[in-house]
Amino acid sequence: MLYKIKRSVSVLFVIGALNACKTTQPTAQDNGNLTEVTPVAPIAPAAPVKEEKVVPDWVAKKGPYNPSFSTAFDLLHTQLKVSFDWEKQRMSGDAVLTLQPHFYTQNEVILDAKNFDIHKIELTDKKQNVLQSLDYSYDSLQITIALDKDYTRKDIFGLHISYTAKPNERQTSGSEAITSDKGLYFINPLGDEIGKPQQIWTQGETSANSCWFPTFDHPNVKMKQDIFMTVQDKYVTLSNGRLVSQKKNSNGTRTDHWKQEQPHSVYLTMMAVGDYAVVKDEWRGKEVSYYVEPEYEKYARTIFGNTPEMLEFFSNKFQYEYPWDKYSQIIIRDFVSGAMENTSASTFMEAVQVDDREKLDQDWDFIVAHELFHHWFGDLVTTESWANLPLNESWANYSEYLWREYKHGKDEADFNLQSELESYLAESEMKQEPLIRYHYMNKEDMFDSHSYAKGGYTLNLLRNTIGDDAFFEGAALYLKNNAFKAAEIAHLRIAFEEVTGQDLNWFFDQWFMKAGHPDILVMEKFSGNTLKLTVQQRQDPEYTPIYRIPTKVQFLWKDGKKEDRAIVLDKEQQTFSFMLDTKPDLVIFDPAHIIPGVISHTKSTDAYLIQAKRAENVMHRVEALENLGNSIIADPSLVSELNTYLKDPFWGIRETAAGLFDGYQGTGDLTETKAILKNLVVNDPNSSVRATALTTLGGISEDFIPIAKQAMNDSSYMVVATALYAVSEIEGPSVIPTVEKFEEARNPNIVFVSSMIYGQFGTKGKLEWYDKKLAEMNDQFRQYMFRTMTGYIITLETEEEKSQATDIILKYSTNSGASTDTKVAAYQAISPILESETVNKRVSEALSKEKDQQVLDALKSQGY
Questions:
Q1: Which conformational region is residue 13 in: left (phi greater than 0), alpha (psi within -120 to 50 degrees), or beta?
Q2: In whole angstroms, what is the distance from residue 214 CA to residue 20 CA?
Q3: What share of the chain is helix, strand, coil (3-state, %, to 5)?
Q4: What value, to the nearest 5°, has the Cα angle with vertex 406 and ends 18 and 555?
Q5: pTM
């Protein structure tokens, strides 16, 4: 599906730096540096005591069985003719659906259609000639149409439906992943919203396209389509497939005809309307186009320019050429999620729209790869039901790994993959579900870190279990066998089994069909020439399987010798014995770092030193460094060892090492450390490393100010913002003239830090700047701006200033396009000056007209 926003936008201090990837590795606690951990034998009670077992909070509540949609009709084709009423936020629609009974004889059709005004329904023939009007009933969600006779699977007929869609006039809902199910969205329809263009766009997943055209709104229903969009001639349109024609009308409008000639799922149908610059590339003779707001035209290739290379890479890797007529990508305002893989026309949230300088801090290639890859896994082959969503999302999630591995190397891919594991493990504390879930409570719940993060991590495990050649050949066979069809998890398993000749049910059963993950404790003991490795699977077998895991153990010696041994975990506790000439200096369990779970393996400092230097997987190196970092106060000699990693070829290791010294209060000599960190601040090619090094220096260096001031000229907004904030904490208001040099910058890192500094020092005359910055921001960023603005409002002294601040706050809190959260943040920002009678009166009047009860409830709960 669409891209669930699991990564927050990279905004320093306020939202959190996306690039600061936390990479903590679980370890056995309270065991110091021991290499052997002896489990304590349980003490048997004197007499059996019957106690009711407490069910863990994370055990999922089982919902009803959710089958795939039963297909009474094949939807062969949908023709839509649409036009828009911006003022009423309605759409006039004229639909012709071409239907054929799937197998059984039918005499009625039940279509999904949410909150329409239906004007007429008629039977048509193959040429769309009207034959007769049909009787129907309608309950605002579904139309039940009585056919004129019984139709067999040999019959083809059409339904002509004239209607008006009213997306804003129905009760809507949403979820964490998809915040609204309105289906059709009018953005700034009256043109009165501050800093926002007028747009129309649609979002179909999961079942919201039936909010703007009648259909069978289920993922296993596929159709071809023609859409005729009539819009004001000044606007650009986009839809699935090819733009066949554009016809100018006498009333200043234009009708664009978009044709999708290959079958795709209903939820993948899209439209978009707005003022866009269109920048075109090409791949193998097909159009590749980027739709951005006009001021970002020169940055379109900055944002999307790697798309042709991605098309080539994925087409070759999976032995299936990109199957659709074109590939367009469009950035839209106020999107309800991160991005969406509409067939041949993906939509992206506005945060993706960056300039060259902003891309230094936030490269959105991973989301571009994700949505493009869906055009194989999701669009070409589509999940048969939402219960099988990982067939779409796990693959798209893993495409991010594949692209990084290809473009930037395995270390980059593995370093970022760790965040997927951590995302799932964090969610697992609240719930643990099978990846394939037929008993979900709500289909929207499927869009979580299980389907995305754990699913992608599990595919990486499968790849490493069966080997690269088998993995990619199996995936290619799955695409070939199920192209333009819907599939379930068994189709994927069978494809891999056909390629490998192995029964892989054991793998799919434990990883896709069962909940939970392994919690593994590893203990080692060397005696004589034998190393005994005891491995416990500590997860509760009542709720989580005891896994079968083929893996390896790696032994390393200081002299450079290395040896791998294969083992298979399949019991709650196992001891593996290895005959070795000498005791290894380091034992690494799961050296490829591919098991989706928690692994605890305590090691000595000497072992971690070897692991940091010689482990093949970057995350084992990170694990070692973080454990060594925990010991540098107790063992100052480690400082010089860790300094070497500040010069590592991989930026993730340099950043990790830099962070280890943050706030260091030990007795180690940091002279060399500081020199290296200063060099990183100035010369490191990665902005995240520069920012981390600068932050660390601020806590350990007496002569921090000169390097921080040098960093104020950095090409990275994140580094500049870090420097400004750090200097302000030390030098106070004298930093203000430097901050003012960046007042024209629109980057959130700079704006939020400037706002905090102005508030901290009560800088006079900045209300107009706040007003300008608020106008430039989207709704989400305005929330954060209001929170930083509170500190500034506290400093206001005169009634004139307070009145001006109130003008600004009310402009946004009463704006028709403001979200609930933004309104609440705005009213909270003005709260420090409510003692002013004039301010209080104006705010009270505004709240008396507020129609959003959630705003009123939120403010009341906070004592407003």
A1: left
A2: 46
A3: 40, 25, 40
A4: 85
A5: 0.93
